[in-house]
Amino acid sequence: MTSVTALVCTLTPSPAASSSQLLAEQVLAGFAEKGCETSLFRVVDHDVKPGVQKDMGDGDAWPAIRARVLASEVLLISTPIWMGQMSSVCKRVLERLDAELSEKDDEGRLLTYGKVAGLAVVGNEDGAHAVTAEVFQALNDVGLTQPAAAVTYWHGEAMGSTDYKDLDGVPEKTAGTTKTLVANCLHLADLLAKDPYPPS
Amino acid sequence: MTSVTALVCTLTPSPAASSSQLLAEQVLAGFAEKGCETSLFRVVDHDVKPGVQKDMGDGDAWPAIRARVLASEVLLISTPIWMGQMSSVCKRVLERLDAELSEKDDEGRLLTYGKVAGLAVVGNEDGAHAVTAEVFQALNDVGLTQPAAAVTYWHGEAMGSTDYKDLDGVPEKTAGTTKTLVANCLHLADLLAKDPYPPS
Amino acid sequence: MTSVTALVCTLTPSPAASSSQLLAEQVLAGFAEKGCETSLFRVVDHDVKPGVQKDMGDGDAWPAIRARVLASEVLLISTPIWMGQMSSVCKRVLERLDAELSEKDDEGRLLTYGKVAGLAVVGNEDGAHAVTAEVFQALNDVGLTQPAAAVTYWHGEAMGSTDYKDLDGVPEKTAGTTKTLVANCLHLADLLAKDPYPPS
Amino acid sequence: MTSVTALVCTLTPSPAASSSQLLAEQVLAGFAEKGCETSLFRVVDHDVKPGVQKDMGDGDAWPAIRARVLASEVLLISTPIWMGQMSSVCKRVLERLDAELSEKDDEGRLLTYGKVAGLAVVGNEDGAHAVTAEVFQALNDVGLTQPAAAVTYWHGEAMGSTDYKDLDGVPEKTAGTTKTLVANCLHLADLLAKDPYPPS
């Protein structure tokens, strides 16, 4: 059974409503329909320390999250847009994943090799493409694979102030990109699980 | 009298309608109301050669455009968004401006020092913040100054297909950012014309 | 036999030496060693028109390049860095690929689905990560897949002026990233050729 | 007397050595030589809460930092590069500054209007231009002005591992960009202090 872990990077702690959590849940529902096991961390609820080591010690919540990521075939990042950019929580997640460049299996492969990345981005106004660019670049650096069209997103018109969580239902186009994200991530995760990248 | 030159970076040659030209014209109208002299180049109509020299020789249209830019106190770049990014025409303009790093006055200052930059960005969907980031970084590198809030923009909702030129009138928020852009560019251009940066 | 097409995005026409062409040739040599068929276009030598259609008519050189790209399993983009960003030629290539969003097979899949993307970036100083972010975002948008660690690059120290083509041999780290790029692109291209993404 | 506040965005708490702190101190020394009053916050040492309000309540360290920023004419951001991008601490600072869009003086101007921004960026390898783009875009959004050439930086060769703090002395080119940053920020801060932007 394919396992999918979502890291939700809203700035707002639980239990407040969150657009990026909502979109992540919609994506996970798509994965669950296909028979996947899913889990979700709202990262700001956990004490993830700043740094670029896999364990920053002393109360660091990352090692537990990391264990779940490493046990999954698909990593879904979900982030809000602030000032046209990813959230600081999302940036912290990427920094912690940077530590994976030092972690290899017996054949010299990164532990992240073979995992695929999906992305959900949501904001009042623009930023989705720029956030996609930076998140995928960082995840590609640390060994994850990006399936074709592996991002779903929504944003309002320029200088808009509507939240995704306050829309009447899921916009048709976002529903479409969510469906494609799920299908393509799963397809590629299955292929790479059966047939991993060669040792380098 | 303050002189403003707009470089419109649509991919579409004249005489077709262009959203980025329309927004540039609206900004220039704001400058004209304040008593500025304005001019506009639709860059794709001119044979601007690839390269990073001030004159790429043999039919290169850049030297004439460059002369106008150097004779102006304000440079307005206007670009459409494609795939969340600036147009290739806009990128070419930046590359040609890169040559200014080698051009200095008698006191060792860049010829661009003292000029201020404004920006207009328009697209069906997101990209305005990312385009702003890259255009302003490049212009700052080559010696232009960015006044506070020196960008006006419009984009539609995620995966939208409406063009700015087909809207019913100017959206109120875009009208507001255009007004601020004009006021702040003019204010700073006047200050720097009277009191230039020191030689370095 | 896997086919690899490289689009070299230097600003400099042939026959002048080009760092981005050199790095592309080194990557293609890696593919050839693995038994691939390779071809290379130095895009600036061809009259690729501005626009976002698959054929801009009247002397447009893109349709011939596009035919080669569509006949290949791997697309390698190679670009120089100018002002920390990709070249305008590279941006034009991405814009022309944007047209692929309208082209689908009998089952509704993009013609680009199943193709994988590799990237080579080279500059005097910094920009490789930012260029990777933007190129991969655009290619992912239009249906290409990014294998893990699918980029090779070189740049000098801050404000450096050394060209890659003038180095004494290939830096060891760049040789390493080139090798990984080739291995991972080939592995994934083979998997996707045998087992394509599902129709959406 | 002009006041300059530096926000150092290293991921590493005091008292460990930090390259981004070192570069910030070098820039501040330049300002002090010109007679400025300077202060520095190593942000990670303070409990700056996630969020986009000026005060996130309950132990939030931002209000004290914000007070110092608002009392200064020049804001210097100094950030390390991780994965080609700014640090998560830097991103958090930008998010907190986003609150300034709601804060205006009696004439309707942002409290940040008239302040100028300088930037210091440092990393083992590339990212300085991309970080500059994003930080300046965000600061411009919230009302700060970017003087020409307002950034100083250093990075090593591609995939390098040398830290700025371990270099033998300050590289000549970085010393030069630091000097220009100081001169241009001071010049513009003086002009804007005497002659503020008009109300909008």
What does this structure look like?
Four copies of one chain form a homotetramer. By secondary structure, chain A is of the alpha/beta class. Chain A has a single domain, classed as 3-Layer(aba) Sandwich (Rossmann fold). Chain A has five helices and six strands. Chain A has helices at residues 19-33, 62-70, 88-97, 128-141, 172-194, and strands spanning 3-8, 37-42, 74-82, 85-86, 116-123, 151-155. In chain A, strands 1, 2, 3, 4, 5 and 6 form a six-stranded mixed β-sheet that branches. In chain A, strand 1, helix 1 (19-33) and strand 2 form a beta-alpha-beta unit. In chain A, helix 1 crosses helix 5. Chain A is globular. The two termini of chain A are 28 Å apart. The A-C interface holds A 110, 112-114, 129, 132-134, 136-137, 140-141, 143-151, 176, 179-180, 183-184, 187-188, 191-192, 195, 197-198, 200 and C 110, 112-114, 129, 132-134, 136-137, 140-141, 143-151, 176, 179-180, 183-184, 187-188, 191-192, 195, 197-198, 200.
